[in-house]
Each structure stands twice: as structure tokens, then as C-alpha cells.
From TrEMBL:
<protein>
    <recommendedName>
        <fullName>Chloride channel protein</fullName>
    </recommendedName>
</protein>
<dbReference type="GO" id="GO:0008021">
    <property type="term" value="C:synaptic vesicle"/>
</dbReference>
<dbReference type="InterPro" id="IPR014743">
    <property type="entry name" value="Cl-channel_core"/>
</dbReference>
<dbReference type="GO" id="GO:0005247">
    <property type="term" value="F:voltage-gated chloride channel activity"/>
</dbReference>
<keyword id="KW-0813">Transport</keyword>
<feature type="transmembrane region" description="Helical">
    <location>
        <begin position="567"/>
        <end position="592"/>
    </location>
</feature>
<feature type="transmembrane region" description="Helical">
    <location>
        <begin position="385"/>
        <end position="404"/>
    </location>
</feature>
<feature type="transmembrane region" description="Helical">
    <location>
        <begin position="277"/>
        <end position="293"/>
    </location>
</feature>
<dbReference type="GO" id="GO:0005769">
    <property type="term" value="C:early endosome"/>
</dbReference>
<feature type="transmembrane region" description="Helical">
    <location>
        <begin position="249"/>
        <end position="271"/>
    </location>
</feature>
<feature type="transmembrane region" description="Helical">
    <location>
        <begin position="416"/>
        <end position="435"/>
    </location>
</feature>
<feature type="region of interest" description="Disordered">
    <location>
        <begin position="1"/>
        <end position="31"/>
    </location>
</feature>
<dbReference type="InterPro" id="IPR046342">
    <property type="entry name" value="CBS_dom_sf"/>
</dbReference>
<dbReference type="InterPro" id="IPR000644">
    <property type="entry name" value="CBS_dom"/>
</dbReference>
<dbReference type="GO" id="GO:0010008">
    <property type="term" value="C:endosome membrane"/>
</dbReference>
<feature type="transmembrane region" description="Helical">
    <location>
        <begin position="305"/>
        <end position="328"/>
    </location>
</feature>
<feature type="transmembrane region" description="Helical">
    <location>
        <begin position="121"/>
        <end position="145"/>
    </location>
</feature>
Length: 813
């Protein structure tokens, strides 16, 4: 019952999920234009943007509006539920069979067959190239704008701080990041970099640039693409489960998200770009699908491409192609066949190669915080690693509850009506509190890189501010230095890190969910990395001063490099990210790809698994599932067990108090009667039965196909009038002499709709919905149509049953 407390699921009304408590409200007008209202901004998405080719209604049969009016206007806003995914698969197999048969007849047909087979791989190649190029551009632009808050390169304003000082010969070992070519804003305006005035000028310019970037980001999102806000992963998960939102993966969303992601990250807000990069990659895939007919006209095939695109997004975000594929398989995808696995791997490889070719960080690495540790870990250290896992689980559970509570406040109060003001206030608060502390002033990825770093002789970081001792003349195990006593610089850094930990934990709660692109990977990893570094330094000093104790005797001798604080930071980052997202296998692989060390898999696995167990004890939903519940998306979590003992007859509609099910008979109805039925209802489709008396199920016809067929028949077929008989049988009865010709619509009837019996247990029905990606199916008894059951009905039933049963602890479920 985790997450079922959402009011949108408690309501027993039919509209409880249609008008869900979300920032996204879809309004279907008579002219079939989609008006999306997000936080007061209204945007019209044209039909050229992210057009689901098979769409003709909502995710359940009952429509909430008259999008499919009698004018026969084309598809509605969401993918048609009955043509997807399995009928789409069936059509694709039929298409393959036809191409294979024709390929034996001529050389041209053979070339067409080869081209069709190669098109999927070509599409993956294009997705990888486009996503990698965009990710590289985002990394370069974000690094440049982040540095611009602190100063300017006199050689060329387009250089960031590091690139500006690359060719300088006037840098020193202690101040390697300072060179005459780069000047702070205080030096540019006042001519000096020292003193209270210089500090005030730098402080003020830091805030001004941060507010400017945040204002541009939220304004662009609000004005041009409201769907570009947030992480995008909850919506991608919902889309891959069969719920397509028009415009969410369109070209305007891609353009605005790419631009505003750079601005949001550069503003210094506690957010990351990794989650939004998954959204960006999926937008690229969706747009490129329109170049290939078999993907443009088949939503099931497009969904496989989106699964691969999610892997591409993580691949370019972390430089972890294998971890990206596992992330898509474990966390995002609803349906992941073996063919999609291969293509995901290929696309992630191409994207990683493209990003490596661009080399956005100038270090020949795919990510900013690539590190390699050389000292081995010891069995005794599993205890601290498990402690970090416990901390990550507690932090994840606390963060999810706090963030969801804050998002509810945002939705239910006047705060939600002022997204621009909220973003500016949070940005100002973040900037004012972050600037005095060097570890909160720097970007999230740069902070993680600093915390992951293993100190060497050439490091001038405060985290490497150890006292010099006689034992440091010789190196320890591997390439690391021997453990040393902490100096004044290190103690000062630890105090700053402790303050940064408290600040990051609090500010991330109110930042995630604002109307700007915001990822959660980097902030979560930063919290864990800070906690891990603090614990690692503590263990290092404990080993240095107590190397003769029973715990350290035998493996930590004086002058040896026993403890690696950077490794603790890495394990802490994985633990906190796992506690927030509930990732396990993919998270370990991602962290392994970041560090390149096979020997650290066991610490990562121990911390990640402990984090998940601890977090699951307080609630089994990750942050993305919690936001799906909060927004009321029709999503059946595949990881949850169905705990109810009911039958489909208990859940299906119509119920006793509902009007009878609207059906079409296979013969006997006139065009006028069919039009009246369509006009008086808002359903996306109608069951076809033998007669009103028998209700023997024949098939299912879509509202869209019905309207288009009648409209075309009136224009092209002579004699079709309102009194014409509509026939869904193969052989129509002979009409009377004075009767108008009948309208034969056998071709638009789906003769194999998904059905279950009224005695089918609901746990089996839920598995069918999950594994086949259904949003509705018909309920029969001995071939007689009784009703329909939708994903919305299942979610409402689960929510109502959770309220009636006594609340169990998550570990008891």
C-alpha cells in the first residue's frame, strides 16, 4: 500500500484519476488541439510534435472530453490502449512477413528488406550520436557559465577558468588555479582581489549571475515548454508503461530542456543534469523515430527505442554505457526484450564514444570525477561501509518523505501559483548560504570529484592538509601515501564539509520538483560523498593513532597506506543514491565504471544493498515512484506484489449503480444511431456484440476508426445516408428494395481484443496488465460481454483496499 495515500487514488469517482492532482492538466477541445496548463502557463502543442500515430483516446475507454467529435478529427492526445503494445507487435510481424515474401521476387524488394532490417541499428546510431553531442555541449556550456559567476577570462570570454589558465606559465603549485589571464569580478571592477570590498563584489556578482541564470531557466520553461521542468524519469517510466503524453518528447521540449538544463545547473541550485539527460536522450529518440516509417507508425516499436534511449541518457551522464543499459532494464523499462538489450548497448556505446571524442572536461575521461584508487580495502572496513549504507537508507527514506511533503504543499497552496518567485527565492537562498563555504560554492560534480580524490604529493587541496611526518618519505601500498596525522587545513576542511552536509541535505529537499530541469543523482551522491569522506578521514586517523590495536594489527602497520578516504566517499555516494532511487545492480556497475576498480565491487554491493534494505523498512517506493503516485499517473509498479484476493468481477465496470455498457451490434444499427451513440458518449472505443439480447462478444472498434470510416463513406460511397445499415459481419444480409446501401465496416473491427473472465483472480489480471503493457481489457462470462476493466480501475481498487485493511509495516508485506 506504499504511496496509496494520494487523494487522487482514494476518490471513488470515475474522474478521480482523470483529473489527477498534477501540474499537468490535459484539456481536449473540440478542435483536437492539446492545451497543457502547467503552473499557469498554457502551451499549444502542434500535431507535428511527438504525435502518437496510433493514438485515439485516453488510457482508459471512458474519455474525459469530446476530443473525438463527430467531425472525425484524427487522433486524441494519448496512445490508443487497444492497439498497443501487442497488436502493434502483431502488425510488425505481419509487415516483416510481407517484406520477407517480396524479397524473394525482385532485387529491389531484397534491397528494401535489407534496408528495413538495418534501419533499427541506424536509428540507434543516430540516437547515440545526437545524444552524445548534446551531452557534450551541455557539459561544456554548464562548466563555462558556472565559472562565469566567479570571474572572466581576459584572453577570451568563452574560455572557462581551467581552459583559460591552461597555457599560462605563471601559475604556482599552491595557487595552480590562478593566472593573470583569469580575473575575478572584484579584480575587473575594483582592481584588487583582497579585502572586504573585493569579497563583497565577488559575493554580489555570484548572486546576480545565479539569479539571472535561474530567471532565464524558469521563464523559458514556463513560456515555451512546461514539460521541460523536473527530472523527467518519472514521466519516462510512465510513458514506457503505455501512457503517452503529447509533446512531452517533442522538439520544443528538447530544445528548451537542453538550454534551461545548462542555466539551471550553472545557477548553483542543488540539482544535477543526469536525470534530465535521460529525458533529453528520449526526446532525441522520439524525434528521430519520425525518420523511419516502421517506428513512426508503430508505437510499440517506438517504446523499445525509448528504452534504449534511457540507457543512452545514463551513458552520457556518467560515462557508464553498461550501467546505462542496466539502469534502463532495472529502473525504467516496462518491456525489455533481448533485441532491445543489444540495441541499447550499441546506442550507449556510440553515445559514450561521441562524448569521449568531444572531451568536454579536457581530461580524456567521460566524466569529471573519474578516479582510480590503488590501495586495497580490508575486511575490517566492511563495518564502516555498512554504516554508510545505513546512513544512505535513512537519508533516502527521510528525503523522499520530506520532498513529497514539500511538493504537496507546493500543489495545495498558493506557492504553486508562483513558480518564478519560488525559483528565484530558492536560488537567492542557495547562493547566499553557499558562497561563504568553498565546498558548497563549487558545482556538484566538482565537489564529488574533490571528495573522491585520493591525496598525493601534488595535491594542494585542503582535504589533503596533513602534517608532514618522517614516515611520509616512503610511499605506502600502491601509489598512495602513508597515513599521516591531520593538520590544521584538514580540520578546517572537515568543519566546512560538516556544514556543507547539513546545507545539502536541507536545500535539496525544496529544490527538487521546482519548475526548472532538475536531476537528483548529483545532489544525492554529493550528500553521500561528504558523509563518506568525513567517515573515511575519521577511520584514517583512528588507524594512524591506534595501529597497534586489535582491529588494525596485522594489516595496518606504521607507515602504510591503510585507509583511503576517497573510497569511503565513493561508497557513501552509492549508498545515498541507492537509498533515494532504490537502484542496486545498475548503481554498482555505474560506480564501478566511474572508478575502474574491480576490487571495490564488494564494498559497493554491501553499502548499496544495506541502503536499500534500510530504506525499504520505511517505505518501498523510490523517489521516482513516489512522484508518479503524487502526480496520479496510471502506473502499475512491477516491483510490488498484489496483495488482494478479489476477482475481476469485483473491479470491472459498469457496476450496479453505473449505466449499462455502451456497445455496437454487428448488424441492425443505422449510421444515424451509431453517430448518436458516439455523440452521446466520450469513450475511445466500443465493443461489438452479436445483439443487445445475447451480448456475445464479436470484437472491438475504435472511436477514431469508426468516425473516419463513416466520414469517408459519406464522401466516397454513393447512397450512404443516416438510414443506412452499419454492418460489422463478413456477409451482410440482403437489403430491402427501397433501403439505402449498407455500410460494411468489418475491416475496422479488432476480432481479438484482450479479454479475461469474470472469475479471473485480480493478481493474474494485474500481471497481465504489467507484462503486456495493457491499459484496459474486456471482461466476459462464457463468451458474453459483462464489462471492462482498466488500469485506472485497478489502481483505485488497490488504493481503496489499502484504506480498508489494517496498515502493515512494509517488512510484513
Amino acid at each position: 500500500c506504499a504511496g496509496m495515500e494520494n487523494p487522487g487514488y482514494r476518490s471513488g469517482s470515475v474522474d478521480s484519476l482523470r483529473h489527477r492532482p498534477s501540474d499537468v492538466v490535459v484539456e481536449d477541445d473540440d478542435d483536437d488541439d492539446e492545451m497543457v496548463d502547467i503552473a499557469g502557463a498554457t502551451l499549444d502543442f502542434s500535431n507535428t510534435d511527438d504525435d502518437p500515430p496510433l493514438g485515439s483516446g485516453e488510457y482508459f475507454v471512458e474519455r474525459g472530453s469530446r476530443a473525438g467529435s463527430m467531425s472525425g478529427a484524427g487522433p486524441g492526445r494519448l496512445v490508443d490502449p487497444l492497439e498497443d503494445p501487442l497488436p502493434g507487435k502483431s502488425k510488425d510481424r505481419d509487415r516483416h512477413r510481407e517484406i520477407a515474401n517480396k524479397s524473394r521476387q525482385s532485387t529491389v524488394a531484397l534491397l528494401h528488406s535489407v534496408s528495413d532490417a538495418f534501419s533499427g541499428w541506424l536509428l540507434m546510431l543516430l540516437v547515440g550520436l545526437m545524444s552524445g553531442a548534446l551531452a557534450g555541449g551541455i557539459d561544456i556550456a554548464a562548466h563555462w557559465l558556472t565559472d562565469m559567476k566567479e570571474g572572466l577570462c581576459l584572453v577570451g570570454f568563452w574560455f572557462n577558468h581551467e581552459h583559460c589558465c591552461w597555457t599560462s606559465n605563471e601559475t604556482t603549485f599552491q595557487e595552480r588555479d590562478r593566472c593573470p589571464q583569469w580575473q575575478s569580478w572584484a579584480e575587473i571592477m575594483t582592481g584588487t582581489s583582497e579585502g572586504a570590498l573585493a569579497y563583497f563584489v565577488n559575493y554580489l556578482m555570484f548572486l546576480v549571475w545565479a539569479l539571472l541564470f535561474a530567471l532565464l531557466a524558469v521563464t523559458l520553461v514556463r513560456a515555451f515548454a512546461p514539460y521541460a521542468c523536473g527530472s523527467g524519469i518519472p514521466e519516462i517510466k510512465t510513458i514506457l508503461s503505455g501512457f503517452i503524453i503529447r509533446g512531452y518528447l517533442g522538439k520544443w521540449t528538447l530544445i528548451i530542456k537542453t538550454i534551461t538544463l545548462v542555466l539551471a545547473v550553472s545557477s548553483g541550485l542543488s540539482l544535477g543534469k543526469e536525470g534530465p539527460l535521460v529525458h533529453v536522450a528520449c526526446c532525441c529518440a522520439n524525434i528521430l523515430c519520425h525518420l523511419f516509417t516502421k517506428y513512426r507508425k508503430n508505437e510499440a516499436k517506438r517504446r523499445e527505442v525509448l528504452s534504449a534511449a534511457a540507457a543512452v541518457g545514463v551513458s552520457v551522464a556518467f560515462g557508464a554505457p553498461i550501467g546505462g543499459v542496466l539502469f534502463s532494464l532495472e529502473e525504467v523499462s516496462y518491456y525489455f526484450p533481448l533485441k532491445t538489450l543489444w540495441r541499447s548497448f550499441f546506442a550507449a556505446l556510440v553515445a559514450a564514444f561521441t562524448l569521449r571524442s568531444i572531451n568536454p572536461f579536457g581530461n580524456s575521461r567521460l566524466v569529471l570525477f573519474y578516479v582510480e584508487f590503488h590501495a586495497p580495502w580490508h575486511l575490517v572496513e566492511l563495518g564502516p561501509f555498512i554504516l554508510l549504507g545505513i546512513f544512505g537508507g535513512l537519508w533516502g527514506a527521510l528525503f523522499i518523505r520530506a520532498n513529497i511533503a514539500w511538493c504537496r504543499i507546493r500543489k495545495s497552496t498558493r506557492l504553486g501559483h508562483y513558480p518564478v518567485t519560488e525559483v528565484l527565492v530558492v536560488t537567492a537562498l542557495t547562493g547566499m548560504l553557499a558562497y561563504p563555504n568553498s565546498y558548497t560554492r563549487m558545482g556538484g560534480a566538482e565537489l564529488i570529484s574533490e571528495l573522491f580524490n585520493d591525496c598525493s604529493l601534488l595535491d594542494s587541496s585542503q582535504l589533503c592538509g596533513y602534517k608532514q611526518s618522517n614516515s611520509t618519505s616512503g610511499a605506502g601500498v600502491g601509489n598512495g601515501l602513508a597515513d599521516r596525522p591531520a593538520g590544521v587545513g584538514l580540520y578546517a576542511a572537515l568543519w566546512q564539509l560538516a556544514l556543507a552536509l547539513v546545507f545539502k541535505m536541507m536545500i535539496t529537499v525544496i529544490t527538487f520538483g521546482m519548475k526548472v530541469p532538475s536531476g537528483l543523482f548529483i545532489p544525492s551522491m554529493a550528500v553521500g560523498a561528504i558523509a563518506g569522506r568525513l567517515l573515511g578521514v575519521g577511520m584514517e586517523q583512528l588507524a594512524y593513532y591506534n595501529h597497534d590495536s586489535a582491529i588494525f594489527r596485522g594489516w595496518c602497520s606504521p607507515g602504510a597506506d591503510c585507509i583511503t578516504p576517497g573510497l569511503y566517499a565513493m561508497v557513501g555516494a552509492a549508498a545515498c543514491l541507492g537509498g533515494v532511487t532504490r537502484m542496486t545492480v545498475s548503481l554498482v556497475v555505474i560506480m564501478f565504471e566511474l572508478t575502474g576498480g574491480l576490487e571495490y565491487i564488494v564494498p559497493l554491493m554491501a553499502a548499496t544493498m544495506t541502503s536499500k534494505w534500510v530504506a525499504d523498512a520505511f517505505g518501498r517506493e523510490g523517489i521516482y515512484e513516489a512522484h508518479i503516485r503524487l502526480n496520479g499517473y496510471p502506473f502499475l509498479e512491477p516491483k510490488e506484489e498484489f496483495q488482494h484476493s478479489s476477482l475481476t468481477a469485483d473491479v470491472m465496470r459498469p457496476r450496479r449503480s453505473d449505466p449499462p455498457l455502451a456497445v455496437l451490434t454487428q448488424e441492425g444499427m443505422t449510421v444515424e444511431e451509431v453517430e448518436a451513440l458516439v455523440e452521446s458518449t466520450h469513450y475511445s472505443g466500443f465493443p461489438v456484440v452479436v445483439s443487445q439480447d445475447s451480448h456475445r462478444l464479436v470484437g472491438f472498434v475504435l472511436r477514431r476508426d469508426l468516425l473516419i470510416s463513416i466520414d469517408n463513406a459519406r464522401k466516397r460511397q454513393e447512397g450512404v445516408v443516416g438510414a443506412s445499415q452499419v454492418v460489422f459481419t463478413e456477409h451482410s444480409p440482403a437489403p430491402a428494395d427501397d433501403a439505402p446501401p449498407p455500410l460494411r465496416l468489418r475491416g475496422i473491427v479488432d476480432l481479438s481484443p484482450f479479454t479475461v473472465t469474470d472469475h479471473t483472480p485480480m493478481d493474474i489480471t494485474v500481471d497481465i496488465f504489467r507484462k503486456l503493457g495493457l491499459r484496459q481489457c474486456l471482461v466476459t462470462h462464457n463468451g458474453k460481454l459483462l464489462g471492462i476493466i482498466t488500469k485506472k480501475d485497478i489502481l483505485k481498487h488497490m488504493a481503496n483496499d489499502c484504506q480498508q485493511r489494517p496498515r502493515l509495516h512494509p517488512l510484513q508485506l
